[in-house]
Amino acid sequence: SCDATQLCNCSSMGLEFIPPGLTAKITGLNLAHNRIKHIQSQDLKQAVNLRALLLQSNEISSIDEDSFQSLEKLELLDLSNNSLAHLSPVWFGHLFSLQHLHLQGNSYRDLGQSPPFSRLRNLSSLHLGNPQFSVIRQGNFEGIEFLHKLWIDGSNLSQYEQGSLKSIKQINHMIINLRNSNIFSEIFRDLVYSVTWLEVAEIELPVEKKSLVQNSTRPFRMQKLTFKEALCTDQTISQTIVSLKEITSLKELQAINCVLEGRGRWNTEEIARSGQSFVETITIIKAVIQNFHLFFDLEGMESQINKLKRLTITSSNVFMVPCQLARNFSSLLYLDFQENLLVNNRLNETICEHSWPSLQTLNLSQNSLKSLELTAVYVSRLPELINLDISQNNFGEIPEECTWPKHLKYLNLSSTHIPKVTRCIPQSLEVLDVSGNNLKEFGLELLSLKELYLTRNQLKTLPGASPIPNLVSLSVRRNKLNSFSKEEFESFRRMELLDASDNNFICSCEFLSFVHHEAGLAQVLVGWPDRYVCDSPLAVRGAQVGAVRLSLMECHRSLVVSLICVLVFLVVLLLVAVGYKYHVVWYLRMTWAWLQAKRKPKRAPPKDVCYDAFVSYSENDSEWVENTMVRELEQACPPFRLCLHKRDFVPGKWIVDNIIDSIEKSRKTLFVLSEHFVRSEWCKYELDFSHFRLFDENNDAAILILLEPIQSKAIPKRFCKLRKIMNTKTYLEWPAGEQQQQVFWENLKGALKS
User: Fold this and answer.
1) Which of 69, 379, 528, 594 has a 20 to 30 Å separation from 141 between CA atoms?
2) pLDDT, tens digit, for every residue of 24-64?
3) Are residues 323 and 258 in the same domain?
4) What CA–CA distance (Å, rounded) separates 547 from 357?
5) Which range marks the domain in which residue 225 is found?
6) Which InterPro entries does this chain map to (predicted)?
């Protein structure tokens, strides 16, 4: 259960005792939310380097006195929410390094007779008390001189010995739950000289006529006093105001979730006689005033508010401040009326002429204001106003022109349902927030503007830079922004922060190229890279913009398609040229004819044989063939019938069909071979077909006549069977002498007859 830093988490494991085997390596041990009931002496003896020990929410009811003796380096000990019925000083006697101790939520009724924390010289925060805790005695806090935070659950505290908390010289922040109003006064008198910020919860303010301040030469330390969930009446408020004036160091008062049973009938005369208040800041949050609409106008309190600098009254049903009272807030700089019931006609009374003369910041957000034009008129009565928040009011419309305070620098109009921005927006602004208004564009000229917030609108592009040349920070988060270009980005010359996160970005090549190559973009974009996600293309949807890389085809599709088309066209053109040069069409037609011929019987029926031989020869050898061979053979006795292409081919019939028919109608085929023959394209065509037809039959239908000496290598290699015949079979060679020529003719005639 331990990580690399030796912090061991054994919480919520159903343990009934501290697990054995703890070593000096462990620095943190979490045993919270188990069922441990008893801590024994040996349980933690070896964990000498332990810094944090969490034992809250167990069932611990007893601890051996020397259980923590070896934990001299322990800084945090949490024993809260257990069943400890008493606290022993011996437990904490060796915890010299302890800074944070949590003991609240047990069942002890007091802190014992001896001071339990006297050895904890480094203690910084202490939490103690429970619903059964009822007694605080002198000496309980002996040994503690300084605490950063002290929290006491004294909701049922019934006895407090005066001076018990006086021994602590300084407490920065103290929180105490207290219902006994009499004890509150006693505790308060002890704390006024030591606590900087006192927070009191659940108190019912007492009717106290005795002074809350003792005669002492010690200086007051209390600067801030907070009441939470307190109950007060008109009488107790009046007396509390008078009593607190004695604490000259008190500068801030807070009331949170407090209930006032009264109508504002305060003893203003007594309050005025008691002198000037030193409080500068008052904060009232969620005050509950029964029948608040009957609350008095606090007439007579004018003299008590003229030194006040900050006033916050939120979520408290404020619907108006009387004009006369408002005029006496002469020093007020900050006023917050967020989430109240102010309407325009009451605002006219609240911000009347010469009221709030020094006010610089005003928050009227989440009220019931309906007219932006009237609101601007009333606010213009505040000559020193710099910051104005009127967000989350339902204005609905925005006029073309408005009157504003001349020094206004900050204006918040977010979520006010304005459909557009007009020249009603003051030119003096440095900060403008118009988020959440469904704006489709922003083109307003604001030369002094430095910060612009356009979150949650409908913008599809960044606003133009020229009308807002001094912009330093821009937020267009959660709009309909698809991308932004290098030119748009660089047009904002002073831009330091740009929040364009949570938009549906189209990760185009141009946008990705800009994002990946723009120097310093990551330092300007808020939320980069986690909150910048691609919405399209579909293949990269959900991916971070900075991590997406698109292929060349995806980035330059039109160019790639154009190149492919050009390449295909060139290939087709090349094929056409090659086909034209090498008669490919003719070869294709010949191949088709040959395939058809393959399906025919290899030999024509005897009745269809018309010739003794088909003669294949070169045109250059035609004189010998036609004048010598034809005369010799066709005039022989008996004569031979020869098929010559010049004479016997059917006119108009395709040449391949003529060759096929002539070979099939001839018993033999004579090839008159010569150098002209093997170089003749025409003869090659005849050989291309005839060698398939004739030599596949494996017979002697072919007769080779060598008209002149020729090497077999000169015959094209693809006619392998023809070369094989020349190498393996006898062929007739035309002789030069007449005597040998007679023998040649006799041999040829014999071959034709065979």
Assistant:
1) 69
2) 999 999 999 999 999 999 999 999 999 999 999 999 999 99
3) no
4) 55
5) 218-298
6) Cys-rich_flank_reg_C, EF_Hand_1_Ca_BS, Leu-rich_rpt, Leu-rich_rpt_typical-subtyp, LRR_dom_sf, TIR_dom, Toll-like_receptor, Toll_tir_struct_dom_sf
